[in-house]
Write a structure and sequence with these properties.
- The chain is globular and about 80 Å long.
- Strands 1-2-6-3-7-19 form a six-stranded mixed β-sheet, sandwiched between helices. A four-stranded antiparallel β-sheet has the order 13-15-11-16.
- It folds into two domains: 291 residues, 3-Layer(aba) Sandwich (Aminopeptidase), CATH 3.40.630.10; 123 residues, Alpha-Beta Plaits (2-Layer Sandwich), CATH 3.30.70.
- The mean pLDDT is 96.
- Strand 4 and strand 5 form a beta hairpin.
- The protein contains 13 helices and 21 strands.
- Bound molecules: ligand BES and manganese (II) ion (2 copies).
- One manganese (II) ion binds next to loops.
């Protein structure tokens, strides 16, 4: 099978390129038809791969693609989840090649070439590995267990309709484990399994001073400037030790034991290379924690966007009436995103000076998640990566969020295995997103090994 996969590399890439050319941007309503085209494309490829049923399930938002092949109901079932939607490409002018015209280029980290395109790594390239791995299994030894596929089109906008779909389709989605390739490995020679994801609480605030924009000469100095006020409020939400000042924010945070922290620190990490890659002189963050801990096992609060006043060409002397910001918090076990959203709202209202009125709006969110490392699913992932890469894999904790994963556990009672093949440096959500050709091919090779080991381990446990 390995030779077969290697000899089909060009075809796999050509097909992936066709998929990447479809601008499936979920956030932007003008791409609604592209979303449908992307769903149709991947549905067709799932049927070509030998799945015996595939359908497009409409939702109130973008459709979900579902497919399955049940070879024997007595065998275990792997449910693969991923997303075919992508982040907007902007700022488009910072891309060296157009975001929806996939181009292969060699980089220092990807000597075998990387595919530059929006969604190449997150997550179209990674879901396509599953389609091709299933195709290869079907053409060779056959599937060792049953497979179900669920690819959604709203992950990048908070998976708001997937929850309803899952709740309404529990029987259809019945499985033994969920397999997800939408995370990273440490490096191409250091395979790793992410054992956790952070949760997310996403807020938007509006600060209003006077009832209208004012002449900043006539009123400036006497009436509050909402942008100045908002900037001060935001600045006050971290103290001098990098701790978040929202009351109650840390109450439910589970501190890792010294042994757990040590285990995480044993995974390779080079601070100098990290700084060099980002062209920064210094890192920052919560006192008492390492860079890796700050970006994985600790919660954060960040402004994602801030606006108000005059931002057009030239200058305009104005005392604006309103200022806005989008603020998100990454959460860790056992923080609850709804609770944190409420704490934030309360805090923000409390710290607002009498000179302004504030409004706080809650956007989407998701709970944090951890995968136990003593499960069969984790062991199967470990063995597959070990064989696939010829290297011992290490457990890591990821900093990103896949909000629906905690809901899968709650509604379906299923654990998810985070079996991603990207690199953190692949510029996800940024201009020039890319995905290593090595990573793409290694994924196609390694996924069948997960199927093999998972089926074996389940059988051993039964007998
Ligand atoms: N695939 C990412 C999440 C991710 C990236 C996990 C890297 C681990 C390592 C996912 O597509 C994503 O971007 N999630 C969003 C969630 C949000 C839009 C609700 C995130 O983390 O910001
Ligand atoms: Mn993703
Ligand atoms: Mn993403």
């Amino acid at each position: 099978m390995k030779n077969y996969i290697a000899s089909n590399k060009q075809r796999y890439l050509d097909e992936l390129f066709d998929f990447l050319k479809i601008p499936s941007v979920s956030a932007d309503s003008k791409h609604k038809n592209d979303m449908l085209s992307a769903a149709e494309y991947i549905k067709g490829k799932l049927l070509d791969a030998g799945l015996d049923h595939a359908e497009i399930c409409p939702t109130d938002g973008h459709p979900i693609v579902y497919a399955e092949k049940i070879i024997d109901p007595a065998l275990p079932t792997i449910l693969t989840y991923g997303h075919y939607d992508v982040q907007p490409a902007d700022p488009v002018e910072l891309w060296n090649t157009p975001p929806f015209e996939p181009t292969i280029k060699v980089t220092p980290i990807h000597p075998d070439g990387a595919i530059f395109a929006r969604g190449s790594c997150d997550d179209k390239g990674q879901i396509y590995m599953h389609v091709k791995a299933i195709e290869a299994m079907n053409l060779h030894e056959g599937l060792p267990c049953n497979v179900k596929i669920m690819f959604e089109g709203e992950e990048e906008v908070g998976s708001e309709n997937l929850g309803t779909f899952v709740k309404n389709n529990k029987e259809k989605l019945k499985a033994d484990i969920i397999l997800i390739s939408d995370t990273s490995i440490i490096a191409n020679d250091i395979p790793s399994v992410e054992t956790g994801l952070r949760g997310l609480a996403y807020m938007e605030v509006e600060v209003t001073a006077a009832n209208r924009d004012l002449h900043s000469g006539v009123y400036g100095g006497a009436v509050a400037n909402p942008i100045n006020v908002l900037a001060q409020m935001i600045a006050s939400m971290h103290d001098e030790n990098g701790k978040i000042t929202v009351e109650g924010f840390y109450d439910k945070v589970i501190e890792l034991s010294a042994a757990e922290r040590e285990a995480l620190e044993s995974a390779p990490f080079e601070l100098e290379a990290y700084k060099k890659d980002l062209e920064i002189n210094e890192v920052t963050g919560e006192k008492g924690y390492s860079t890796r801990e700050r970006a994985s096992i600790r919660p954060t609060l960040d402004v994602n966007g801030i606006w108000g006043g005059y931002t057009g060409e030239g200058s305009k002397t104005v005392l604006p009436s309103k200022a806005f910001a989008k603020i998100s918090m990454r959460l860790v076990p056992d923080q609850d995103w709804e609770e944190i959203s409420d704490l934030f709202t309360k805090h923000f209202k409390k710290i607002a000076p009498a000179t302004v009125k504030v409004q706080v709006k809650k956007h989407h969110g998701g709970q944090p998640y951890v995968t136990p490392t003593d499960s069969i699913g984790y062991k199967a992932a470990y063995l597959a990566l070990e064989e696939g890469f010829g290297k011992t894999p290490v457990p890591t904790r990821g900093g990103g969020s896949i909000p629906i994963v905690a809901l899968f556990e709650k509604e379906l009672g299923l654990k998810s295995i985070l079996f991603g093949f990207g690199l953190d440096s692949d510029a996800l959500h940024s201009p020039n997103e890319h995905y290593g050709v090595f990573n793409f091919m290694k994924g196609i090779e390694t996924i069948p090994l997960f199927y093999k080991y998972y089926s074996q381990l389940v059988n051993e446990q039964k007998s």
